[in-house]
Amino acid sequence: MASFPPPQGGLIITHIFSDTFYVGWLGLILGFGKTFTGFPRGRSPMTITHAIWASQVAAAADLPDERLDQRLTAIFMDKIEHPSASIPQAAGSAAAAKATYRFYANPRVTADALRRGIATETARRCLEEDVVLVVQDTTSLNFTGLHSIPELGPIDSGGLARGVHLHTALGVATSGRIIGILDQQYWARPQKGQPAPEEKESGKWINGVDAARDVLSAAAGDWPLPRLIHVMDREGDAYEVMMTIVDAGDSAIIRCAQNRRIDDPLTKAHEAVRHQPVLCRQEILVPRKTGVPERHAQVEVRSMQVTLVPDLEKYPHAWPMTWNLVEVWEPAPPPGVESVHWLLWTLEPAATAAEALEVVRKYTCRWPIEEVHLVIKSGCQVESLQLETWEGLEKAVTVNAAVAARIVSLRDLARETPEAPALGVLDEDEVEVLVCRFGKGMKPSELTIDQAVLWIGRLGGHLNRKRDGMPGVRTLWRGLHDLTLLVAGFQAGKRLRE
User: Fold this and answer.
1) Is 286 part of any domain?
2) What CATH number corresponds to the domain at position 470?
């Protein structure tokens, strides 16, 4: 399974969501700057260094030796500072690289302990929120070249590519700000002729719900939990998943895939919601995608409350449930263009136009999880790892995933302060290099985050024409790589002059 594309039509409601996506393209830019841990309820974001974050994760992992804590902290720091580098490159020396390999090979260090440390650190910051979105999604990791690892399985229809599937549950603020990873699950599908696993793959969604609640409850102790809203794409539209969420007392927003039977004269949910009155008509921006230019679309928004009638032959222990269904539909798309159409199951209020649009806005907060998976693979280069056992590989991927989530979360600082000085998120040398390269007559203190992003994009090949929009994630990644090389040369020149 590859990373899922954005929902059909790439829906962005301009008048409501522009701030949510203002720096969607900033996911990778701030990896060398300062960071923050979240918002205490009703207060401004706090900043902590990468080293403090890494040490907090290591402490929460509760490894059996303090030296292992120190090594894990060092590994996190190496990867944050050199996200695309191999283990030897990131470590910086043969001795440090050897220590990293020993850490991943150490049987006293388990992947479960690493995941526990990452999830616990995330959960503690989630407790600063009144509401937390638990966003889940699945991707695949291709390790075809690692022939020594028998635990890998097919990840394509032809069975030629081998690897594992990774299912992530992220804690996300209602603003769309990534807090961190709450749960990760790995599994491999059986080879042809091997018995199928007893548990259905749809169980990953239920496991994600349960794991998120468990780690948050453990972190909270006697403190109240934030209200949880589970956000899933179409694959999460399973009756047993919906029952689990209702039984837990949580809320959810799930992209609708099943035209479920309901207690209504029209009997089917999709037809019934289409016959509801229009709550509002809204102009939305449909971003460009390959071969299709950016366009504006006029959509209608409807909603209704339905009672789902379960198929007792398929789910003999199921019970009827009451959910809301929100529809966003483009009735008159241009000729030859696919209509924008969303259907969202939700337990959130959706009776008014404002409530229905808020449901849609919260669903769009699912998209950053795709950026995290992109950074894991294209940024942190986990598919290039050369480890000989699944145990070691699983630990390395787990560490890289936490780094990827942290790098993507850093964009939110820029989103909330887009006109802030770039020196707040980039090192002095990085800012000075950008100003020397592009900002004739500008002082480094005058460079804003917005302008820094455009210039880093130009290093990566972005032309910055009016019709181009802002640089994309891949362009920024290339630009950051070039900026790192320029800064290294700049620093070498300073040392020579000294």
Assistant:
1) no
2) 1.10.740.10
Is residue 84, in this structure, part of any structural domain at all? no
Residues sharing a CB contact under 8 Å with residue 14, sequence separation 6 or more, in sequence order: 283, 284, 285
Compute the distance between CA of residue 425 and CA of residue 431 in angstroms, rounded to an integer.
9
Tally the domains of the chain.
Answer: 1
Please tell me the distance from the alpha carbon of residue 385 to that of residue 392, in angstroms, as a whole number. 10
Q: Is residue 299 part of a domain?
A: no
Nearest one of 226, 224, 222, 198 to 212, comparing CA atoms? 226
Contacts of 265 (CB under 8 A, 6+ apart): none
Look at residue 24 in the predicted model and tell me its pLDDT: 30
User: Which tokens belong to 192?
Assistant: 């042809």
Element (H, E) at 77: helix 66-81
Is the backbone of residue 466 left (phi > 0), alpha (psi -120 to 50) or beta?
alpha
Residue written as token pair 């009638």: 309
427 lies in a domain? yes
pLDDT value for 477:
63
Which among 269, 267, 241 has a CA at the least distance from the CA of 254? 241
Of the pLDDT bands very low, low, confident and very high (cuts 50, 70, 90), residue 48 is low
Supply the range of the domain harboring residue 427.
420-497
Q: Give mean pLDDT, residues 274-296.
A: 86
Instruction: Say if residue 383 is exposed, middle or buried (CB neighbours under 10 Å; 0-12, 13-18, 19+).
Output: middle
